[in-house]
Amino acid sequence: MMTQPFDYSGRTVFVAGGTSGINLGVAQAFARAGASVAVLSRTPDKVRSAVDELGEIGVTALGFAADVRDYDAVSAALTTAQQELGELDVLVSGAAGNFPAAAQSMSARAFAAVVDIDLKGTFNVLRAAYDHLRKPGASVINISAPQSSIPMDLQAHACAAKAGVDMLTRVCALEWGPSGVRVNAVAPGPIEGTEGMARLAPTPAMEHIVTDSVPLNRYGTAQEIADCCLWLASPQASYVTGAVIPVDGGWSLGGASQVFTAMRNLFNATP
Ligand code: COA
Ligand code: NAP
Question: pLDDT under 50 in the chain at which residues?
């Protein structure tokens, strides 16, 4: 059996959007490393099942059904998490929404929905969590995306929102550094088995276009994103703050910029 290289026993981790996909993988990795973990998302069934899965790992797990667009609900969840689990050592903010849509046909409400969840939701989570973070020593990790730095076809909403997430990461790193709170972001590439890629590459032909555009020629795994988060929140990364770290098989070196342009016709053909 592989040795767990990070020990988070006695630590508390809160994962906003932690009930499925990459973020659940991150929550599970912290739980396997011994942390008590709280997750938050909108859907009560997803929250229940994530808490069950985390509990099966053998750690204390809490869940909250709330929308990151609702500041008061997020704040109440974080207050309860601190009361039940203690001050937060690690905050992961990863709630997001996405779908492929051209800027000229996307409704204003569609654009707003993604910005409200990804960017304003991240602000809500960070703002509400700050008072509950264990200072000094706490670590905040935002889940960004290659869209934050690379203009991508059909992704005006996600590009704008995630660019804002990266800048929020840097500004909070600047402001919170003196309190001993590190703030970083991880920008995953295309990750297998996720809702995000089911929406952006919904057919095998599209999946092949994506993997061909990644220098490592494959999708990544949620575990590979979690491994970066485990390191980022650890003492081994104690001098790292304000960084946006791509974990993307080299996708952001070039392939990511053209992939959805190449897929535009396939999207038009998809019913
Ligand atoms: N293409 C174009 N517009 C779309 C769309 C799509 N595929 N899906 C939703 N929209 C539009 C809606 O039509 C609506 O605009 P309108 O009122 O002008 O018609 C607007 O977006 C908001 O939709 P709504 O369903 O009310 O939003 P919501 O707040 O319930 O859900 C979403 C947010 C749209 C982001 C939804 O896709 C979601 O909940 N996603 C979470 C899961 C996810 O995306 N995972 C991947 C993470 S990378
Ligand atoms: P996912 O499974 O849909 O994860 C999104 C999570 O956020 C879910 O738990 C969802 O649960 C929650 N969520 C969505 N809207 C919310 C809201 N308004 N309030 C509270 N919670 C909300 O998708 P994923 O593909 O794994 O993506 C996870 C993260 O990785 C996102 O930040 C995404 O941008 C990023 N990312 C993904 C990829 C990829 O390849 N998939 C690549 C780059 C970056 P509910 O539906 O219950 O709310």
Answer: 271
Q: Is the CB of 95 under 6 A from ligand 1?
A: no
Please tell me the distance from the alpha carbon of residue 122 to that of residue 251, in angstroms, as a whole number: 24
172: which residues sit within 8 A by CB, 6+ positions away? 126, 140, 181, 183
Topology of 12-269 in CATH?
Rossmann fold (3.40.50)
Residue 214 in contact with ligand 1 by CB distance below 6 A? no
Question: Whose CA is closest to atom 23 on ligand 1?
Answer: 110
Tell me the C-alpha to C-alpha distance, in Å, between residue 233 and each of 5, 101, 219, 238: 13, 35, 24, 8
The per-residue pLDDT for 266 is 82
Query: What residue type is assigned to position 52 of the chain?
Result: D
**Residue ranges per structural domain of the chain:** 12-269
The Cα 196–Cα 180 span in angstroms is 33
